[in-house]
Design a protein that fits this description.
The chain is mostly beta strands. It has a single domain, classed as Neuraminidase (6 Propeller), CATH 2.120.10. The protein is built from 1 helix and 26 strands. The N and C termini lie far apart (43 Å).
Length: 299
């Protein structure tokens, strides 16, 4: 039995760290700071972080098969040329709404970029309800809207057999599942697989492991949960030294490390004194389970 170790590895404070992705070829961790309006890449060998500023709040970043990245920022998708440090808009969504922004996103097994929106916050997790929606950017740069009436679109991933889509609308305090059509990218038959308990906080980002279990970051809950989506049972809880846990992904040489992003936004001096590592990124080792490599955008 391995002992679980929680280590603070990226000690550069994010306002809202989010959307971590492990880049296997480069051996680097990609992530965003939503309210810091930047995309960053951390190299564990050199312990250095490179960043690129965005013009708007950036909710998610994903790798692109042809090189570079795709981001969901503000209310549009854009491509990132890291070498040139250049961002090029691709397409706008819901041009009539200036009170929403993109939040979390991820690429499906076929190479489509799923990303959801939410109303602009007045305070952390305080926003106008039912303003968000879930979208897909296809390889040909067309956009599909799946559903709306979303409060705070957040974590998402797909089952290992690609037949189920898992999704979190944070203010529902639930992890949900849909039947997934890998050919068309459509979702249907929405259902609940796990309801968070009161002390577990708000469900935020999420990833899947090589055994098909979900790891859910708990904002204001100071923990990540391992959930069996088939039974709805919480299998494991790993606590961290900060409360505002935002997302997680597997990475490292064999995808056996779990990287966890956190936030510091909205914390006053007293709160920061109690949790000086808020906004930093953590690595959890000794979990005895591995993750799977992330998907890359096909366009």
């Amino acid at each position: 039995m391995c002992s679980i170790k929680v280590e603070c590895v990226v000690k550069e404070r994010n306002k809202v760290g989010e959307s971590p992705v492990w880049e296997e070829r480069e051996g680097t961790l990609l992530f965003v700071d939503i309210f810091g309006s930047r995309v960053s890449r951390w190299n564990p060998l050199t312990n250095t972080t490179q960043s690129l500023s965005t013009e708007m709040f950036v909710g998610a970043v994903v790798p692109r098969r042809s090189g570079g990245y795709i981001i969901a920022e503000g209310t549009h998708f854009a491509s990132v040329d890291w070498d040139k440090q250049a961002i090029t808009p691709i397409t706008q969504i819901e041009q009539d709404k200036d009170t929403v922004r993109f939040n979390d996103g991820k690429v499906d097994p076929a190479g489509r970029f799923f990303a959801g929106t939410m109303g602009l916050e007045s305070k952390p997790a305080e926003l106008e309800r039912k303003q968000g929606a879930l979208f897909t950017l296809n390889a040909d740069h067309t956009v599909m809207k799946h559903f709306d009436q979303v409060d705070l679109s957040n974590g998402l991933d797909w089952s290992l057999d690609h037949q189920t889509f898992y999704y979190i609308d944070s203010l529902s305090y639930k992890v949900e599942a849909f039947d997934y059509d890998i050919v068309t990218g459509s979702v249907c038959n929405r259902r609940v697989v796990y309801s968070l308990e009161k002390d577990e906080g708000i469900p935020d980002g999420m990833c899947i492991d090589a055994e098909g279990r979900l790891w859910v970051a708990c904002y204001n809950g100071g923990r990540v949960l391992r959930i069996d989506p088939q039974t709805g049972i919480r299998m494991q809880t790993v606590r961290l030294p900060v409360d505002k846990i935002t997302s997680c992904c597997f990475g490292g040489q064999d995808f056996s490390d779990l990287y966890v992003t956190t936030a510091s936004y909205g914390m006053d001096h007293e709160a920061m004194a109690k949790q000086p590592e808020a906004g930093y990124i953590f690595k959890i080792t000794g979990l005895e389970v591995k993750g799977i490599p992330p998907n890359s955008f096909a366009g």
